Amino acid sequence: MISKLTARDNLRLRGGSVDRALEIFPELEDHLDRPAALLSGGQQQMLAVARSLASQPRLLLADELSLGLAPLLVQRLLKAVRAAADQGVGVLLVEQHVAQALAISDRAYLLGQGTVAMEGSAESLKERLDDVAAAYLKGHPASHHPA
To answer: What pTM, to 2 d.p., does this model score?
Structure first.
């Protein structure tokens, strides 16, 4: 997202379609003529995802969509990502909220200290959330994880 441009201009970057972006996130329509820097954090994240998907990519790389956002907005973003995958877009999602990521994923890889600690279908890993949590926490100092 380029903060000096309006939301509309951001959506036009890379040949994206504003109409296509509004199909994904119609709630952006009222904000098209506002500078992107003046949008809320959630609106900025919707704008970034809409801009990416409006250009009809073959692959979407999404890193921490949920960071600092309200749960309902996170669900909205993840739903859009899942819809893109259903339409043939390859999606690589990096997300710390495992249960939410697994709910929309086909396959998952848990990385720990540069190696694959666990992998499998999202369905199989949803059934092993305690193991996923243990693998994630392995090697992380306790001070980073409040009790």
So the answer is: 0.82
Residues 98-119 have a mean pLDDT of 90
Cα three-residue angle 32-89-74, rounded to 5 degrees? 55
Exposed / middle / buried, residue 27 (Cβ in 10 Å: 0-12, 13-18, 19+): middle
**Cβ neighbours for 70, distance < 8 A, ≥ 6 positions apart:** 42
Higher per-residue confidence, 35 vs 117: 35
CA angle centred on 20, ends 96 and 13, rounded to 5°: 80
Pair 109, 132: CB distance under 8 Å: no
Amino acid found at 128: R
What one-letter code names the amino acid at 105? Answer: S
Q: Would you call 139 helix, strand, or coil by DSSP? A: coil
